[in-house]
């Protein structure tokens, strides 16, 4: 099915549910049997024959949003398995549940005479039992279904199956695929339920007033809402990637699905609880949808473990099988060409200045046309350079941040002067943004540019701090205030591109925790011609926004270097997995799984940010989300490496350097707190006072 076909199918599902199960409160006495009959009539259980996983999960998602436990994926899996028989003894589109059975387990179903924790069991007609190790799958009628009251509403059931109606031989691979699909279905439904609660919380935060203002204007609420949105967006992107790989027949789709499931298993309850915190007492009582969605999220997440995989968790797969994270779908041809070029250059952990490029590498990139790529291809280049730890950061930064801004806002003369330098990797620049009283709050900057009474130029006075690489730069991309009375403040800003050897510019070096050099730069009676101005007078904010869009993608691109660190950590574990990580199920393996999933989530958000920027809106939500998740992951990764590898990880090398560098990723380009504020406002929450 095409994306438009899936969207139309989802609309149809939504219409059916609106009549029979309009919202999560229906769960108290929901007509699950009527929904099941309608689903059969509308063909929801016939999607397996087309391998239309996207459509099946669209139905699951719509059910999750209204807290309806219709076992869509059970029908999908049963249809796929029973279709192997020429004449199944029972209709595949019937009310069939699927259960996995594993010998020797006290918690999982362990005999054919009992199936526990069944969803919608009192309205199902048959159960298909699958032995985890492979063998004979048995389709049997349900003779009795005993309710198991508890968290789930409607209740789970304990089923008593009857004699076989049909059997089919299944190998371990088929059972494993079934488990992956069932786990993914539960994850999708849980995430959809949490997302619905999150949406209700956002609307509540816009109108609920406390202490004379909307609660959404409180910093703590805005930060929580932003974090929930990041978790949801990453989860939906990972799910979409798994579906895309499945429908394309990619060999790595099970790993992509497990990554999506692992992310959601953690994220959905966290988002649900975050939304409850925002809703406060309003969402605590059963007149509201939130309590019913709470039940659905937690019931679905806990049932994921009822469908075990022989391959284990994400870390087990990566360490034991030799697999790597699924590669991004975009730029494969470009990656191949880049590999042929970049394999000739040695890489290694960076410990010095950000502008300390390898001139031969930069020359090769320029001659190959790699410094004049479009936005999406620029990110592919950033990823490959970052993963290989190659010294070309300054050339790439000029392309990503300044190239696009000059192309859009520069004069013909500026384009002629600077774009060739950028394309050759010869423009060394620094960012003149942060000030002692204006760090992340760039709109409050005070460095003043006033008209030169002696000519048509400008005189600049002020001070910039934390200017990384200023001591090596030839130019500064300088944000100044040209209208001190402007309201709002950002309306009075103008951008200049100024040579660093201009009289009146002085600097003091400071060494950062990472080893990089940043500078305090003072501007005193610095005279520049009007030709140094980029964009309109008092029109600098759009120029800065375009440059920041590129910067935030670069910040999100930390995923590339973290991906390399992850692979290094996995390589260390593969030498002796039990000695390094312990046995399957250990805390270290759980920690490694979490790191791998978050690396992939960050990569997915970076990709979404690139697509949004190309469409003209990436700074609103996607790029800040990539920056926040990447920065937090960098901090956690460094700590996890020390925890897993011990003192060896604290010796000079990629892990200890990554830990020291991680602080920059949560403060550079605007602190994560500020980025969360941008996300919250992008979701419609009011500004704080």
From TrEMBL:
Pfam families (UniProt xref): Acyl-CoA_dh_1 (PF00441), Acyl-CoA_dh_M (PF02770), Acyl-CoA_dh_N (PF02771)
Coiled-coil zones: none
UniProt cofactor(s): FAD
Domain Acyl-CoA dehydrogenase/oxidase C-terminal as annotated: residue spans: 182-299, 538-683
Domain Acyl-CoA oxidase/dehydrogenase middle: residue ranges: 430-525
GO cellular component, as recorded: plasma membrane
The entry's keywords: FAD, Flavoprotein, Oxidoreductase
Domain Acyl-CoA dehydrogenase/oxidase N-terminal: 369-425
Membrane-spanning ranges: none
Entry GO MF terms: flavin adenine dinucleotide binding; oxidoreductase activity, acting on the CH-CH group of donors
Superkingdom of the source species: Bacteria
UniProt-listed InterPro entries: Acyl-CoA_Oxase/DH_mid-dom, Acyl-CoA_Oxase/DH_mid-dom_sf, AcylCo_DH-like_C, AcylCo_DH/oxidase_C, AcylCoA_DH/ox_N, AcylCoA_DH/ox_N_sf, AcylCoA_DH/oxidase_NM_dom_sf, Mycobact_Acyl-CoA_DH
Family assignment from sequence similarity: Belongs to the acyl-CoA dehydrogenase family.
Protein name per Swiss-Prot or TrEMBL: Acyl-CoA dehydrogenase
Organism: Rugosimonospora africana
Record lineage: Bacteria, Bacillati, Actinomycetota, Actinomycetes, Micromonosporales
């Amino acid at each position: 099915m095409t994306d438009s076909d899936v969207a139309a199918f989802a609309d149809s599902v939504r219409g059916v549910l609106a009549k029979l199960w309009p919202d999560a409160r229906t769960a108290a006495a929901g007509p699950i049997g009527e929904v099941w009959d309608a689903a059969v009539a509308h063909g929801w259980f016939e999607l397996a024959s087309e391998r239309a996983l996207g459509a099946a999960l669209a139905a699951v998602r719509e059910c999750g949003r209204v807290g309806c436990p219709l076992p869509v994926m059970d029908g999908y899996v049963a249809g796929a398995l029973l279709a192997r028989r020429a004449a199944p003894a029972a209709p595949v589109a019937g009310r069939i549940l699927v259960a996995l059975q594993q010998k020797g387990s006290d918690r999982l179903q362990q005999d054919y005479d009992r199936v526990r924790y069944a969803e919608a069991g009192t309205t199902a007609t048959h159960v298909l039992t699958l032995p985890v190790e492979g063998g004979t799958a048995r389709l049997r009628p349900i003779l009795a279904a005993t309710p198991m009251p508890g968290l789930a509403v409607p209740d789970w059931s304990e089923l008593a199956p009857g004699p076989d109606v049909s059997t089919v031989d299944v190998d371990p691979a088929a059972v494993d695929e079934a488990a992956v699909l069932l786990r993914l279905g539960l994850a999708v439904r849980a995430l959809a339920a949490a997302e619905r609660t999150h949406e209700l919380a956002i609307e509540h935060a816009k109108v609920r007033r406390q202490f004379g203002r909307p609660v959404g204007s409180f910093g703590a609420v805005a930060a929580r809402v932003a974090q929930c949105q990041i978790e949801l967006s990453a989860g939906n992107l990972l799910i979409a990637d798994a579906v895309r790989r499945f429908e394309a027949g990619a060999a790595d789709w099970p790993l992509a699905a497990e990554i999506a499931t692992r992310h959601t298993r953690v994220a959905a309850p966290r988002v649900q609880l975050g939304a409850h915190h925002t809703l406060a007492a309003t969402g605590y009582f059963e007149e509201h949808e939130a309590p019913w969605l709470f039940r659905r999220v937690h019931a679905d997440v806990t049932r994921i473990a009822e469908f075990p995989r022989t391959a284990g968790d994400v870390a087990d797969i990566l360490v034991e099988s030799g697999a790597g994270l699924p590669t991004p779908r975009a730029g494969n041809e470009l990656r191949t060409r880049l590999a042929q070029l970049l394999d000739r250059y040695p890489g290694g952990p960076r410990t010095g200045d950000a502008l300390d490029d390898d001139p031969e590498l930069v020359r090769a990139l320029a001659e190959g046309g790699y410094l004049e790529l479009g936005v999406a291809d620029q990110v592919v280049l950033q990823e490959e350079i970052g993963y290989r730890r190659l010294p070309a950061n300054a050339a790439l930064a000029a392309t990503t941040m300044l190239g696009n801004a000059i192309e859009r806002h520069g004069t013909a003369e500026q384009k002629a002067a600077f774009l060739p330098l950028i394309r050759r990797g010869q423009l060394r620049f620094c960012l003149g943004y942060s000030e002692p009283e204006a760090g992340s709050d760039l709109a409050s900057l005070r460095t003043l540019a006033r008209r030169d009474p002696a000519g048509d130029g400008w005189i600049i006075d002020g001070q910039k701090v934390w200017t990384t690489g200023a001591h090596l730069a030839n130019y500064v991309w300088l944000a100044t205030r040209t209208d001190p009375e402007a309201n709002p403040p950002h309306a009075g800003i103008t951008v200049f591109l100024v040579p660093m050897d201009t009289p009146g510019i002085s600097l003091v070096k400071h060494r950062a925790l990472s080893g990089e050099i940043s500078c305090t730069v003072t501007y005193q009676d610095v005279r520049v011609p009007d030709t140094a101005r980029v964009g309109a007078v008092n029109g600098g904010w759009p120029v800065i926004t375009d440059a920041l869009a590129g910067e935030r993608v670069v910040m999100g691109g930390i995923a590339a270097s973290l991906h390399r660190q992850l692979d290094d950590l996995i390589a260390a574990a593969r030498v002796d997995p039990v000695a390094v990580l312990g046995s399957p199920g250990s805390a270290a393996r759980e920690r490694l799984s979490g790191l791998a999933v978050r690396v992939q989530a960050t990569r997915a958000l970076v990709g979404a940010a690139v697509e949004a920027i190309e469409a003209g809106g990436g700074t609103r939500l996607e790029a800040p989300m990539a920056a926040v998740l990447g920065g937090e992951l960098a901090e956690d990764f460094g700590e996890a490496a020390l925890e897993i590898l011990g003192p060896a990880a604290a010796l000079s090398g990629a892990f200890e350097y990554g830990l020291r560098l991680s602080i920059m990723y949560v403060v550079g380009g605007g602190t994560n707190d500020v980025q969360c504020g941008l996300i919250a406002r992008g979701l419609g929450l009011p500004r704080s006072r």
